[in-house]
């Protein structure tokens, strides 16, 4: 009986192992397909022929209309509106009202102002650039503006391609193609694959498993990992890349990601041990102590550590779990002013919830922040953030203090272990 049971267990283990191998191979096949889709099966049409605007528009799949908001996130529909329903979800007026026409006219004027501002950037920075970025970049020109402001191509490695990028940098198209053809470690690819399938699943471009959006995100992150040898791929990069992909193509997304990492002080947050993240926590908690000392001390007393909320904030430029209208407004300012807005937004989140947080324990903190992040109004968040007035030199001073003579009480809760 024991011999039979042992043999049965051995057969079961073998079957489980074979099943696991088949699953592993199937994931490899999918990842290989992602790569072949780019390199062998129509790179030009797939990469540069699809427009970001089309990805964020209303889409029709399987005979059913999918309704999205203006950013491409799928709207919840009335369950009574099933297939064959006679109800119409979208009503389109034949004539625009005067108010709507005026709003369109104003938005078009803003687009033209932004276009003129960016024509000579970065050689000449328009005096109203910061003010207008804080009001929000018009969505119609946002992707183009981010590319110009981030200046990604100038940070691309010179090993592949050469000069000739659109803003005087490296050839982003040649580099992207070369990186797509380069072999990558299977463990790396599997790690990217797993994260891709769960990034922005509510967005119409990324919601379909193994669909165009997931393929594009996979390819971008593979190229980024191969380009950035010191960081490779780290969880969190996918959220930033996904935000960019809703506004631009893959080559531009890779270039912008490299520009963000190398030109905006984000790279050290993804290095081994995440030294930049620990430093960001120190600056954040020091500012919190300066502006909200009671709340700062309460957080230390209940051991509410920055690792529990700050990693998602500072590693992704707030692109994880915040409403998309807030995300793009934060990015608009970040591309002009840099890391300072990250600390201001963090202060704003706590300021807007200060009273409730002071009366809460650790569990209450989690609940308050989780609910707040669901539907915060963008203008209120930005206005509150900008109410914290401090020079960028204060951040430099705190970063230097972190290295040379830190506040021990704050330092001990900032370590990444």
UniProtKB/TrEMBL annotation:
Q: Which residues form the Rab-GAP TBC domain?
A: 136-338
Q: What Pfam family is a match for this entry?
A: RabGAP-TBC
Question: Which organism does this record belong to?
Answer: Halteria grandinella
Record-linked InterPro entries: Rab-GAP-TBC_dom, Rab-GAP_TBC_sf, Rab_GAP_TBC_domain
Query: SUPFAM superfamilies, from UniProt?
Result: Ypt/Rab-GAP domain of gyp1p
Please give the name of this protein. Answer: Rab-GAP TBC domain-containing protein
Q: Cite a single GO MF annotation.
A: small GTPase binding
Which PROSITE patterns does the UniProt entry name for this protein? Answer: TBC_RABGAP
Residues of the signal peptide: none
SMART domains, per the entry: TBC (SM00164)
The superkingdom listed in its UniProt entry is Eukaryota
In this chain, the stretch annotated as Disordered covers: 1-23
